[in-house]
Amino acid sequence: MPFVLKKYQAIQGRKIQQFLLDEAGLSAPVSQKLLSKKRVFDERHNPLKNGQILNCDYVQVAIFEGHTRGLKPIFEVEDFAVFDKPSGVMVHPTRKDTEYCLLDEIRYHFGEQADLAHRIDAQTSGLVLVAKNKPTSTRFKTLFEQRQFTKEYLAVVQGEITSDITINKPISKADSNIRVKMTCEVESGKCSVTHVKPIAFNQQNNTTLVKVMPITGRQHQIRVHLDSIGHRILGDPIYGVSEQVANDYLCKTLSSEQRVALTGAKRLMLHANSLSFIDKDKKYSITSKMADSVFSNY
Which residues belong to the active site? Predict the structure, then answer.
């Protein structure tokens, strides 16, 4: 379990922030973050608030402590590292009871200051950049905002694509009961651009292996854009399927056999394959080591 519950004897009349600094040994920024996320509470599990005077017997703090399952970075320098994430592994915990995610490995290998520089879907495999310290994290955030990173994905899509395509459609939240679903809307949403280049066509199952280069970085952008032009990604249980199938997947009632039958694959056939950027006047170009195994049929 990534979140460990630590229990401390309370000191009556002490402000919670000072208590976390003196007794729990936490820094002021970490204490503030934990309080704002309601990860500090009394013995009755009532959240303690910033500025609150302690009037309880115990203070409990839910702290994220990373553990490893053997995943190691494929590239590493002083300020950052790159992981090749398997499909099905979340990059960040969504709940306190999330058993394992990429952040576990990041904190296990590099400590509390390390963090994700960007995110990819749990179902997407491939490269994830990690900043080892706060200055690098801030620097990378600026580079991403300025679109100074070049990211290339590989995907298997339904149908044949015979020429290069640039998809320029805004993306906005969909009016749907599927809580994570988004859709393309021509009239509204944020500007979103994706370049698609066909690599190989598989006539036997009518699918195309494509290289995908997102210029912007919207949530689910590649999945939404490809579905919007009638070439949904194989294995996608959210886009290009019925509302019922998507809800069954989100409720974890869609079996592996049903997913293959309804979507064409047991996993989302989308892979973050390469990442290029310049940091501190040095150019980096990193390529995934997993692509051959993911797309072995092409």
Answer: 121
